[in-house]
Amino acid sequence: MDPCPFIRLTVANLALKIPLATKSKRSVVHPSSSPCFCKIKLKNSPLQTALVPYIPPDNTNFPDGHPQTLAATFHLSKSDLDRLFAKSIFSGRVYLKISIYTGRRGTTCGVNSGRLLGKVCVPLNLAGTESRACVFHNGWIAVGKEANKVSSAAQFHLNVKAEPDPRFVFQFDGEPECSPQVFQIQANIRQPVFTCKFSFRNIGDRNQRSRSLPSSEARSWLSTFGSERERPGKERKGWSITVHDLSGSPVAAASMVTPFVASPGSDRVSRSNPGSWLILRPGDGTWKPWGRLEAWRERGASDGLGYRFELIPDTNAAGIVLAESTLSLKKGGNFVIDLGVNSNGRSNAASPVCSPRGSGDFGYGLWPYCVYRGFVMSASVEGEGKCSKPSVQVSVQHVNCTEDAAAFVALAATVDLSMDACRLFSQRLRKELCQDRDLLA
């Protein structure tokens, strides 16, 4: 399998120093007593925000001895680069624009709360970065109205670099519940690599499981990680999907181990009682649990699909949370596992992503056992009622065999199916998702 070229552009090690003379000016909100933040913009990419730590003006040690703290990350495909280059009057050069503010983030009566301190533009020559890393800036920049006066100007520190981040790209040829083929995309070439088989695992009759799953091992894991008892009220249960390679051998599977149940007195799956999936991989002649996905329906101005994905270690250690966020149920979005920067563009460095569920204190102890670093995968998801053919990107560094890629494909399928599993129970599901036609409504 040949990967597609991608570039990972990172902004890190932010800091701000303001000379003592500037502190006396009452018109300036000083960051030693008020927070400071910045807005980071790359053309054609969503705006990202990050906190900026204040460094005392007499501190000469920064950044020595300080860990590299990520503030923002941009992922650029070859098509993204082509669009950037086409719109730039310079050959292969674009600009990263950073606006630095003092004061709190947010708006009051439609007016931004922060006070603009200054702006920074870093030129980016991205040509060739698909194959080699490049540092565009690492150090201090004078900002503000007195930027030309080095002694009295505020100083802003940042590190901007680009590095190759090749990925395998897969595309479902149909909705997961329709048992589609999965193609690998490389440039303009589409090559079939997997087939998906959607089926119902009859919870009331254990003998009617999908023939693709080794029955004894599957029963053991399903009973360990999920509840198979009949539950009163509205529920969706028994869905499973198996990923096969082109020879027909199963290389990954996912099964709904906790039914998606409507909360008492409502027609929605709540955060307090989520449904869950178990993603399985073959190993040593049996199926082994690899990850667990929980999903529910969030309340708010617009409903969202809340999710939490955790890695299941080979040991008896607690599950390691790799992703936890919300997708718009109306517009869809991207399910992302990125162990550098979260989906909002803010750094996760303060609390390790690779930590056992419910206990960040032990995260650093488990970190050596977590094989995932940086960008891991992303999967596109369409909103409710829309035809969804998920596109999946997986970092090359996390794929050593066919089973690795298949596990991520199975995970992408469960995220997409969770959109349907979390639909209001007053709404109809398509017939492929209903084992009993009486459950269509």
TrEMBL record:
<dbReference type="Pfam" id="PF06219">
    <property type="entry name" value="DUF1005"/>
</dbReference>
<dbReference type="InterPro" id="IPR010410">
    <property type="entry name" value="DUF1005"/>
</dbReference>
<protein>
    <recommendedName>
        <fullName>Formin-like protein</fullName>
    </recommendedName>
</protein>
